Amino acid sequence: MIARMFLSAALLALAPLAPASVHAEDWSKHATERDVVLKDFAFADGERMAEVKIHVTTLGTPHRDAKGQIDNAVMVLHGTGGDGHQFYRPQFADQLYGPGQPLDIATHYVILPDNIGHGKSSKPSDGLRMAFPKYDYADMVASQRRMLTEGLGVTKLQLILGTSMGCMHAFVWGQMFPGFARRLAPFACNAVELAGRNRVWRKMSIDAIEADPLWNGGNYTAQPAQGLRTMRDLSLIAGGNPLAWQFFQPTRAKAEAFLAQAESAYIATANDANDTIYQLDSSRTYDPSRALEKITVPVLWINSADDFINPPELGMAEKLVKRMPRARFVLIPSSPETKGHGTHTWAVFWKADLVKLMAEESK
Known about the structure:
CATH superfamily: Alpha/Beta hydrolase fold, catalytic domain
Number of helices: 11
Radius of gyration: 20 Å
Structural class: alpha/beta
Number of strands: 8
Number of domains: 1
Shape: globular
Mean pLDDT: 92
Distance between the termini: 38 Å
CATH topology: Rossmann fold
Low-confidence stretches: 1-22
């Protein structure tokens, strides 16, 4: 999956500086998983499905206030191609879920959904293939809200933390359902229409899959391997930190060995071509820049300077953050230790800022 590819690339590139923690917790032991079935789901373009399944993982226990409302829920949203399980990884979970940590599961009810088109939720590869409704980010956010209210009984969130695509979903949440979340933490995105290089590499990836003769209009009998390989290679470039790559692969031999290792890791990741096309294209209608003023809750917006997908030289965030009255933007400097686009999942770089956000009261 694309988000997992970004992370795999960072792990491979930075292994000398980021060994696996010997104290890593198995967070799955603390988790509960379920499917929430949304009846008669209406998509923004008018299509409908009798049932949409949203798979969701939760950690911790819901607490109810004097009115019986759940008051300790936080939701963490994954990136393109990911799922809720990616937030078990030690660089994220061990930094956030343990005793005294910002999202301590002894005091917080942590909600990790698989979005439409991802993980164990409804997606094209379930059988409809390219006849599956052409969902977009508004549809994904609408399904998240119904999952919360109808499936989990959650009507308020203390926090939405989103990475990459989840970062963009956080901005959509702030506009579609103002105040539902008391705080927003969008990490690794911009708050404008996906255009320029960001759209181009996504469209190149889609075109590569569809140009593979095995794709056959989405009616393949075997995955279009060459198209998927091109998509994976583009994702590797998009997700990497060039400073770290040069630092750890300073010779041709090391660079090519790194590529071989990365591609071997990708082959072990099962990608469905149609699911991937839908995932990449679901951003096509995204553009929160038209109504950022609707977002009045505290916002912690973080990008990293080594992010190919959201290059800091565009200077977008510094301008747009001023249109949200309680928003703060942080740019993490590039170094051999940062993880490219995947810096969003390494809490060591931004945990202190998250602690400040959680202490800030919403109006």
